Amino acid sequence: MTAPVEGLPPRPAAGHKGDFGTMAIVGGCHSTDAVMLGAPVLAARAALRTGCGGAHMHLPGPLAVDALMQLCEATFVPRPDDIIEARDRLAAATCDAMVIGPGLGTGDDEGALVEGVLANAGPPTVVDADALNALAASCTWQWPASRAVVLTPHPGEYARLAVRLALPSAGDSSRSRLAAAVALAQSTHAVVVLKGYGTVVAAPDRQPWVCDRGGPELAVPGSGDVLAGILAAVIALRAKAGLDDLFEASKTAVWLHALAGERHARDNGPCGMLASELADQVPHVLKALQ
């Protein structure tokens, strides 16, 4: 299979970070029950490795020190505990792409935050992980969102959405996965990236695309967070070049993610890759594609 046609725009020799877009990630949680930080940090790391000009991590305040110790190149933005205040701040955030969900948690407040973000106009948003689960559990949320959206479910997350939206099971066959991704895209009016072996990218009124690259090396914790970050970076980079087709952006991101996994597996074998190592392969893949 050939690479996605549009891909990433060229980087001008005189370009500065403002030319390459910014992404925001809304995730992480800090409570008496759980502390989750790795997922949003991985997404931000992957975005920067893909060439995004800036990564803003909107996380609970207590995570600030640890987050910046793990990724000092990103910007930390404390997310208020009050859901209405957090929603209003996110509505005012300046960025070219957003990711919501990695490590966010699954409580009622987190669900209200996800719904509040998607109910307001804003930058194209990648809805991943706990944000998908929140929408699957919601009794009130109605599609479509008020902004352009890419949904990135793995099979388990798709199954929960399928129950909520009365969609067909994804199954294990390529045909059933293709039909499932198309059904979710049509039901939500969103671009869908159904992850797994032979990741499917679907959108309403578009011919679905199946990635035939990548292998079991990608089946590691955090791999999906890396994909979310790559996707946000691709959306942001393309937005700066006047390209707003999220279907094409999603194809490009899935392709880069798969090739990054292949490159690590070629040098190290098919198992034992860390998600951070996957993110760090992206610049090498981009160089090879150039």
Strand content: 5-15%
- The H-level CATH homologous superfamily, spelled out, is Ribokinase
Give the integer mean of the pLDDT values: 95
Strand order of the largest sheet: 5-4-1-6-7-8-9-10-11
Low-confidence stretches are none
Radius of gyration from the alpha-carbon trace, in angstroms: 17 Å
Count up the domains.
1
Biggest sheet character: 9 strands, mixed
Give the end-to-end Cα distance, rounded to a whole number of Å.
17 Å
Number of helices: 10
Task: Describe what this molecule looks like in 3D.
There is one protein chain. 44% of the residues lie in helices and 14% in strands. The protein has 290 residues and is of the alpha/beta class. The chain has a single domain (19-289), classed as UDP-N-acetylmuramoyl-L-alanine:D-glutamate ligase (3-Layer(aba) Sandwich), CATH 3.40.1190.20. It has a 9-stranded mixed beta sheet, with helices on both faces. Strands 2-3 form a two-stranded antiparallel ribbon. β10 and β11 (209-210) form a beta hairpin. The mean pLDDT is 95.
SSE order and pairing:
Elements: E1 22-26, E2 29-30, E3 35-36, H1 38-49, E4 54-60, H2 64-70, E5 75-79, H3 83-91, E6 97-100, H4 108-118, E7 125-127, H5 130-137, E8 149-151, H6 155-165, H7 174-188, E9 191-194, E10 200-202, E11 209-210, H8 223-240, H9 246-268, H10 275-289
Parallel strand pairs: 1-4, 1-6, 4-5, 6-7, 7-8, 8-9
Antiparallel strand pairs: 2-3, 9-10, 10-11
Helix pairs in contact: 1-8, 1-10, 3-4, 4-5, 5-6, 8-9, 8-10, 9-10
